[in-house]
Amino acid sequence: MDYSALFLQVVQQIINGISVGSIYALIALGYTMVYGIIRLINFAHGDIYMLGAYVGFYCTTVFQFSFLPALLMAMIVAAIAGMIIERVAYRPLRYAPRMAVLITAIGVSLLLEYGGILVVSPQTRTFPAVFPTTLYNIGGVIISSQQVLILAVSIILMVILTYTVQRTKIGKAMRAVSFDTDAARLMGINVDMVISITFAIGSGLAAAAGVLVGVYYNSIDPLMGIMPGLKAFIAAVLGGIGIIPGAMLGGIIMGVVEALVSGFISSTYRDAAAFAILIIILLLKPAGLLGKNVREKV
Amino acid sequence: MLKVDNINVFYGAIHALHGVSLTVNEGEIVTLIGANGAGKSTTLRTISGLLRPKTGSVAFEGKTISDMKAQGIVKLGISQVPEGRRVFANMSVMENLELGAFIRSDSAEIAADIKMVFERFPRLAERKGQQAGTLSGGEQQMLAMGRALMSRPRLLLLDEPSMGLAPLLVKEIFSIIQEINASGTTVLLVEQNANMALAIAHRAYVVETGRITLEGSAQELAASDAVRKAYLGG
Ligand SMILES: Nc1ncnc2c1ncn2[C@@H]1O[C@H](COP(=O)(O)OP(=O)(O)OP(=O)(O)O)[C@@H](O)[C@H]1O
Ligand SMILES: [Mg+2]
C-alpha cells in the first residue's frame, strides 16, 4: 500500500467531511440554542432548514437574486417562520409537561414537511448553479469552490454568533435566561422576547445551511430536512446539548466521521455511523464532549 | 410605597398565601420573619411578578403591579435579591453586574454604578473577571446584592441574605443593608434570623403558614413573648 496516496485520501475525506460537517454544525446550533433556553428538542428544526433551501431556490430562480441576497432572504424568512412557530405552537405550552411540547414539535415538523409537499410538490428541484464550479488542486487534494464557499459562510456566521452571544447585551440575556430563567426575569429581562430571538437566530442559521446544501448538492426536496436534522441533533448531543461551541465541534466531527466511513468503508454505512456515534456518546459521556455534569434546570 | 393587599397565592393546588397584607413606607426597613415554608419567599416572588395572586393585589406607589410582568416591575424600581443568591454562575462578576443593569442603557452611568458597587464590596472588585460560580457564599451574596442595586431600585427586596453565612459575615451584610437604606433605598427584608433582622428593621411582620400573625414596630416584636419564644430562642 502506498502510504502517501493513503494519506492524501485521508486528507481529502477530512476536507469533504469538514464542509458537510459545517452544514451539520449550522443546523446543530439551532437545536442546541433552543434546548439551552427552553429545554425543548425542536423536532421541526430540520424542516426550517428545508424551508431555507426553498426560499433560496425561489429567490435565485424566480426572482433572479444572486447568492448573497438569496442567502440573506432565506435567513430572514426562516427567522420569521421560527418566531411564528415558537409563538403559536410552543409558547402556549410553556408550562405544560415536556412530553406535550415534544409531541407538538413532531406535529409542527410533519406540518412543515407535508405542508411543503402540498405547496411546492414532492418533486426534487435542481438548485441553480449560482457559482461556477472551480476545482483547486492543492498538492493532490481537491477542493471545490462550493466547499470553500460553505466553509467561508459557516465560519463567518459562527464568528458573528459567538460575538453576539459572548459580547452583546442580548447575548448575555440569552445566557442568563438559559442558566436561570427566574433570575433573568428579576434582572428585568423580557424572557419571551429572548426566546423569540433565540428561535430567530437558530432558524436563520438552519436556513443558511439549507441554501449552502442546495448550492453543494444541487438538489432539494420537501423531505430533505429529516436526515440532516436528525444528524445535526446527534451532533448537538455529541458536543453537549445546550453548549454552543459543542454544536460546532459535534457537527464537524459528525461530518468527518461520515466522510471517512464512506471513503474507506462504504457509503452504505454512512448513516449507520451517525447513529453509532449517538449510541457511543450516550453510553460513554451522555453530557457530550464539552458537557460538564448534567445540571437539570429547576 | 408598597401595599400588598389581601393576596392569595397558589402553587397549583397548594394554597401558599392566605390573604397576606403588608405595607412598606418610603425609607423604611421592614422585615418579614417566619419559619421554613411559612410563605416568605412566595410573598417576595409575588411582589416581583414571578407569581400572580389569584385574588388580592399588590400596588407600588399607588400603581397596581400584580398584573404586570416581572420586567415591568423592575423598571418601576423594585429589585430582588433572591433566596440562595441565584448569581449567574457561568458568567463573570462583571457580566453579572451588567445584567443587573439590563433595563438601563446609559452606559456612562452604568460604569459609574459598577464602580460604586465595587466601592461598597471591595472583594468583588478584586474578582471582577472571575466566574461567579467560583466565589465563596459570602461573595456570591455580595454579588447578588450588587447586581440588584445595578437597576437603581427604590425598593430592594432581600430574601434571606444571611443564609449559610458565618456570623461575622452576616454582621457585615446587615450593616451594608443599613448603609443601602441610609442612602435612600427602601428595604423589605425576609429573614429566618429574626434577631439580626429585628435589630436593623423599623417594622416587622411575622408570617406563619401563609398568614400574617403579628405585626408591629421591630422593638415591640423583639420584646413580645410570642416572638421571643418562637423565633428568638426564648
Ligand atoms: N414551586 C413550588 N411548588 C409547590 N409548592 C411550593 C413551591 N414553592 C413553595 N411552595 C410551598 O409554598 C409554601 C411557602 O413556601 P415559601 O418558599 O414561600 O416559604 P419560605 O417562608 O420562603 O420558607 P424558607 O424559609 O424555607 O425559604 C411552602 O409550603 C412550600 O412547600
Ligand atoms: Mg424562602
Overview of this structure, please?
- The complex is a heterodimer of chains A (298) and B (234).
- Chain A is 73% helix and 4% strand.
- With 298 residues, chain A is mainly α.
- In chain A, the strands form two sheets. Chain A has a two-stranded antiparallel sheet with strand order 1-4. A two-stranded antiparallel sheet of chain A has the order 2-3.
- In chain A, a hairpin with a 2-residue loop joins strand 2 and strand 3.
- Helix content of chain B is 38%, strand content 26%.
- Chain B is globular, with a radius of gyration of 17 Å.
- A six-stranded mixed beta sheet of chain B has the order 6-7-8-3-9-10, with helices on both faces. A four-stranded antiparallel beta sheet of chain B has the order 2-1-4-5, covered by helices on one side.
- Chain B is built from ten helices and ten strands.
- Chain B has helices spanning 40-47, 70-76, 93-100, 107-120, 122-125, 137-149, 167-182, 194-200, 218-223, 225-231, and strands at residues 2-11, 14-24, 29-33, 55-60, 63-64, 78-81, 155-159, 186-191, 203-208, 211-217.
- Chain B has a domain at 2-85 and 154-231: Rossmann fold (3-Layer(aba) Sandwich), CATH 3.40.50.300.
- Chains A and B meet through helix 6 and helix 7 of A and helix 2 and helix 3 of B.
- The complex binds adenosine-5'-triphosphate (ATP) and magnesium ion (MG).
- The site of adenosine-5'-triphosphate has 13 residues of chain B, from strand 2 and helix 1.
- Magnesium ion is lined by residues 40-41, 83, 159 of chain B.
